[in-house]
């Protein structure tokens, strides 16, 4: 799949690649087989373009948004009953969400901008540059809140993305970090492409997934790196296309690696296969609560692995319908879905009985 120029590639990239809210705040659970007795409802968000990002602190506090659309409807919120927008005119579009509580939410956008929601309103928190470039797009965020000093929270928060290269492709890697000394740009020497995801596991190993667009290692490529001591070591690369692309997912403190139809773990500096998906409809994206409660994106719906077998939770009744992202809580799941045939943004909301 070829992405041509950076401005028009952003929405397509988000649609086909991101699935990253396996970083959502899930209550700790034992490694028990996940239940499948969900009751599903579907809500429609009235937005003229594809909504591509979703995050929530609880089932009554979920945020969603996406690039390029109605300037009065850029940010959407679910309060447990209905989806609504604040109808505030904004000249920026949400490219990523991540937070730690209902009154502590971050949003990344173009122009190197990062916004913060304090429970009442969104305010510009930072506008970052790298090597003099201001045209950074922060397409994903992830982090942990380390500790509190009084009312001051200390974070380990990453905002990742890219800016355009000389051909207009989003290939100039960007990783911004918020720590005790404020925001800083980390070196990305050794990385190729847009930084799609960054996760740190419980053993403090940091893994990065990138997308190299246009004339990359495999024309359009997905790559996985390990970051240690200021260096990036490439672990895997593949063609960016359904059936072959690579991805990473953080589930219950462990990073899982999606390598084509294999789901792997990293042990003793090697990939070890955890699960092989023998279904050609697998779309190389997963989310989960634990190793026996994993959700899999399929081109025709959402499947579930309970540690023993794979079973569909729902199937679409229309073609060209895809899951962008999910947000997972203890007993509820929200799937952000686009129906291309009817140009609809849908939220599939599942509740365990």
Task: Describe the protein in words.
With 353 residues, this protein is mainly beta. It has one helix at residues 6-17, and strands spanning 38-45, 53-58, 61-65, 75-78, 83-85, 96-101, 104-108, 113-117, 122-127, 137-149, 152-163, 172-179, 182-185, 194-200, 206-216, 219-228, 231-239, 246-251, 254-259, 262-267, 270-276, 282-290, 293-298, 301-305, 310-315, 321-328, 332-339, 344-352. The strands form 7 sheets. A 4-stranded antiparallel beta sheet has the order 1-28-27-26. The N and C termini lie far apart (40 Å).
Level-2 CATH architecture: 7 Propeller
Biggest β-sheet, characterized?
A: 4 strands, antiparallel
Might you state the CATH topology name?
Methylamine Dehydrogenase, Chain H
Return Rg in Å.
19 Å
What's the CATH class, please? Mainly Beta
List the strand order in the largest sheet: 1-28-27-26
Provide the number of structural domains: 1
Q: What structural category do the secondary elements indicate?
A: mainly beta
Instruction: Give the fraction of residues assigned to helices.
Output: under 10%
Summarize this structure briefly:
The protein is mostly beta strands. It contains 1 helix and 28 strands.
